[in-house]
User: What shape does this take?
Amino acid sequence: MTGYFLRRLLLIIPTFVGITLLVFAITRVVPGGPIERMMTQAMLGERSTAAQHTQSGGVLSEEQLAQLKAYYGFDKPIIVSYGQWLWRILHFDLGNSTRYHDPVWSLIKERIPISIFYGVVTLIVTYGICIPLGMSKAIRHGSLFDNLSSVIVFLGYALPGYVVAIALVTLFASQLDWFPLGGFVDDDFDTYSLGKKIVDVWYHAALPLTAYLASSFALTTLMMKNALMDNLGADYMRTAVAKGQSFKGAVRNHALRNSLIPIATSFGNNISLIIGGSFLIETIFNIDGIGLLGFESVVDRDYPVVMGILVISSLLFLIGNILSDICVAVVDPRIRFGER
Amino acid sequence: MRWFKLNPIRLNPITRRRWTRFCSIKRGYYSMWVLGTLIALSLCAELLINHRALIVHYEGNLYFPTYGAVLSGKTFGLDYDYEVNYKALQKNFAENNNSNWVLLPPIPFDAYETDLVKDDYPPFAPSSQHWLGTDTTGRDIVARIVYGFRIAIAFSVVLMLFEYLIGITIGCLMGYWGGAFDLVFQRLIEIWSNIPTLYVIMIVASIVPPGFWTLLLIMIAFSWTNMTWYMRTASYRENSRDYVLAARAIGASGPRIIFRHILPNSISTVVTFIPFSVAAGVTALTALDYLGFGLPAPTPSWGELLKQGTDNLESPWIVTSVVVAMTLVLMLVTFIGEAIREAFDPKVFHTYE
Assistant: This one.
């Protein structure tokens, strides 16, 4: 099985190259890149100062243009500049943002804690609530408790997170004014005492967290419930109860472990959710996380940032898939990957 | 070519049992009827929500302007050449008190018509005229929501059809042929599904402003991968079964094995994904419209209304209407989906006392 996972790890390389090469190529063939952006800026600058410098002629000289192209690597064929880009990535250099002129890595690094905060809290609360809730819904299938909680679960299951987010903002932030409209912390956060800081973070986090939870929570609860109900009807459960084990004990010792398998299959992908978050929810609440950074960089054609986020998110996604497989192998010893 | 025939009366007994089971799940069954009615109503929305009148009785003649050509004001003895303002015409006829009359639809506004009030600025709050109020340019929200619903559902259904057509074909071939084809496509799909779709849509939007079909094409190009994994596993599994081996032994051709044996045995479960794919399509289109990269501007859309609502939080009726409409439709679709899934599931749950 070690051989299988090693092979999977090695397969990350061609997939990673494929993803980045494709997006890199797209950024190159599409109009509106950084050079055209700079030319329009220069043109606007020219126009505003035209009163003084009517003689200065063309917008950008050929020389300047060539310099710019060389700076961004646009003067070489795609595959060559992709090779150079990849070489820099291998040296952990993601380049500079064309919008902020800061290193891409420092832009991303600034926002990672925010995204991790939301990701980790969502993860903990999701699994902390869903597994027990799914269990008790399965055991008390058809009861009042099951039906009542189903309403909430179905609502969360049917509605996408961003619609929940918009509904929450409208109701609790705008109409009732209980929570702030957005942002991660108050503007004068730095002046607060530690206790107030903690309160402030949670005060701002309440609505976005609910929106994040609404979507992930419903899916996991339903998955847990269905899996456990499958197993409650299994022969080994009947045997366990027949030989005298208490029902609770049988659930805990036999059914629960088997029911965790489907949940484990998606566990590894949480790693990319922790970092990525949902750019829609981040846009709605104006939270300065990775998702919002990625969205804004696409809108502004800030290609180095786009590529930087793509590198991180695709690596995490690919590693997450393998992690999921490892989780499954840990929970279910019957599964032997790579053996036919 | 017998497998092309679909005889509705002599359905396969498994299908019949599934249908009975589906009907016995009341929540899903009634949701199907409600959603079906909503879609049917939205298809003839022109008769319910329109600025054109249903029937005009003028000088002994009856006119039905709803689906026909544009009728100019001159037709009804008015002094202008452009399209008749039927609401004004109705008032006009009533004042003159002759035998002429106009029958307007229940909601006499269409999705593009702005209804402005003197010395006031839209959005207007709900009133007897505009049941859910108007948006920021004074267009009726009921009309926007109904026409937006029709477009969103049509979009998602077409998207789903193409997504499944391509996904099932490629997934089935991956499972049937296996080997190098399978391996190459696995990598390709892994790469392809990792490309940020939104990014590509925004790029295309910068070259050609996306219309209904352009947007659909891009969405199809990036969403067919979802189906392949399922079909690959299913046909892979069927391919190793004895009956396929037996069919091959008596000399059945490749296409015959795929269409006659593998597909019928693996495709039925695909039905259980359909409602969720449609819901996902509606959600994705709304998200794109919300961000401003969806259908072009005057098209009625839920996402565009949501955007207006979040930009004008002091007019809560905009957000409320859309969120309620979305909740209703998505809940109905989910209920149907759950019922279908249950109907296809041969397992019956046990409970212990």
